[in-house]
Specification:
Structural class: alpha/beta
Mean pLDDT: 96
Largest sheet: 6 strands, parallel
Helix content: 25-40%
Strand order of the largest sheet: 3-2-1-4-5-6
Radius of gyration: 26 Å
Low-confidence stretches: 1-5
Shape: elongated
Strand content: 5-15%
Number of helices: 18
Length: 396
């Protein structure tokens, strides 16, 4: 494991104590950790249950818990809470995504913690911001359904969740942005603050363009599969051997390049197709003709012609196929990690660069309690006290 830059990372020296599981809270901690913060994950003695999720949840823990340290404590025991408080006393940020009221019941809520440390920043990740829905249980799919995203993704009458935990991930990102803003504010005021992000409000932000589409046009946005496209050629084509490829032609100049590339001079000269708007209105008869004309080509042939002319295209790719993507391999966008069971894997890095390089991997996703001893010692516990906590299953 190596640093991606010789310069200090932006949040080096910032300590974050994370009480989080699943995706939303851990996404926030991962982002801060990737940017240099020391993120200490407090998990149950038996380990975060996210570690053992099956199926579509199997990738959650290794994806969102890199660059973190693990301390395993039983927060149902007073001694476990006391140990957590010792760690919090040295922290800049506390991040949590427990159900409403749980942190307060443990004595770890913001009001209690700011009495101990007025400079502390507390970020909570919830289903809803305070309001009439705040008592509801929320999940990513729940808010996609009630927030218009599933309606927009699926076909008419068939709402469909997006193919990623978009609200959990972005909700965590906005939580991290809130922390960054609170840290900047603390530099001016000397005071910490409470930050909250929420799944539902994040989802509403995502569909805001469609809300404003209604404001501008007076017409409700149609689901993406049946929308009136802004461009005539902006679709998936099935070609030779059943392969599929997405092709886009989004300007009059590109239309001319496209027609020349595929010997479609007759269409280029057709006055019914003179402008993009004309071509959109002609989609009913234009698209079947183009599909028939392009069907004999292989996806690779189409990609080569589009790339040579600067036209947009995309193969239809499964997520697992990205592990062999030549661009990601060349840029180092996939970092090697070690899974909980010791197997190697690769994980996508943050999608931006600092000084030309993506923030890298410093720590593998931690084993349960991997850093308990070292961090409790640093917090003032003696070896015998730590051993006592272990023997009583208060720490691991």
């Amino acid at each position: 494991m190596t640093e991606n830059s010789a310069r200090p990372l932006p949040y080096e020296g910032i300590r974050v104590i994370e009480f989080a599981h699943m995706v939303m809270g851990p996404s926030c901690g991962m982002l801060l950790g990737d940017l240099g913060a020391e993120v200490i994950k407090i998990e149950p003695v038996g380990g975060d249950r996210t570690r053992s999720l099956p199926g579509s949840g199997a990738g959650f823990f290794p994806m969102f818990n890199r660059n973190k340290k693990s301390v395993a404590l039983d927060l149902k025991q007073p001694e476990g809470v006391a140990a957590a408080l010792r760690l919090i006393d040295s922290a800049d940020v506390v991040s949590e995504n427990f159900s409403a009221g749980v942190m307060d019941q443990l004595g770890l809520g913001y009001d209690a913690l700011r009495q101990r440390n007025p400079r502390l920043i507390h970020v909570s990740h919830k289903g809803f911001l305070p309001g009439p829905y705040a008592h509801r249980t929320a999940l990513d799919e729940v808010v996609q359904m009630m927030g218009g995203l599933a309606y927009m993704t699926g076909r008419a009458g068939d709402p469909l969740r997006a193919g990623s935990s978009v609200n959990d991930i972005m909700g965590g990102m906005f939580g991290a942005i809130g922390v960054m803003a609170a840290l900047a504010q603390r530099e001016r005021t000397g005071q910490g603050s409470a930050v909250q992000s929420a799944l539902f409000e994040n989802n509403v932000f995502l569909v805001g363009q469609h809300m404003l589409q209604f404001a501008v046009t007076g017409q409700p946005a149609a689901p993406m599969p049946s929308r009136v496209a802004a461009w005539a050629i902006y679709d998936v084509f099935t070609v030779q051997d059943g392969e599929q490829i997405f092709l886009a032609v989004v300007s009059d100049k590109q239309w001319a390049l496209f027609c020349h590339a595929f010997d479609l001079g007759e269409l280029l000269a057709d006055p019914r197709l003179a402008s993009n708007q004309d071509r959109v209105l002609a989609r009913d008869w234009l698209m079947p003709r183009l599909r028939s004309h392009l069907a004999p080509f292989s996806a690779a042939q189409l990609a080569a012609r589009f790339e040579a002319r600067g036209l947009a295209f995309a193969p239809i790719t499964r997520p697992d196929e990205l592990l062999d993507d030549p661009h990601l391999q060349a840029t180092g966008g996939l970092a090697p990690i070690v899974l909980d069971d010791g197997r190697p894997a690769r994980v996508p890095l943050l999608p931006f660069t600092l000084d030309g390089k993506q923030p890298g991997l410093r720590l593998n996703p931690p084993r349960v309690g991997e850093h308990t001893d070292a961090l409790l010692r640093a917090a003032g516990y003696s070896p015998s006290e730590i051993q006592d906590l272990r023997q009583r299953a208060i720490a691991r």
